Amino acid sequence: MPLFTPEDLLRYLYKESSPELTAAIQVALNENWTLREQMEDIQASVNQLDIEREVIAPRMEVVQRVLQYARDTAVEAASKG
Asked: Tell me, what's the pLDDT at 31?
């Protein structure tokens, strides 16, 4: 049975692995409980990062409003000057 690196598993998780690697990982996941546990750990880590990224990043709508406010106030300041 081939050994898979964490990078291989991440590529598989993000659907960026080659068809051959994807097939090999799927077979190995069905046969190897240790690999399944490793994949579950990686999945949990990725999920946690996604949650943290959502909390940290503002919604695009908010960013657009801030940028529009900055443009509006810059125009006002330029017209007064």
From this structure: 96
Q: How far apart are CA 19 and CA 27, in angstroms?
A: 12
Range of the domain at 35: 6-80
Structure token digits, residue 52 = 């943290």
Residue 52, domain member (yes or no): yes
pTM exceeds 0.70, yes or no: no
The full 3-state SS of 12-78, as one line of letters, equals HHCCCCCHHHHHHHHHHHHHCHHHHHHHHHHHHHHHHHHHHHHHHCCCHHHHHHHHHHHHHHHHHHH
- Quick check: is 1 in a domain? no
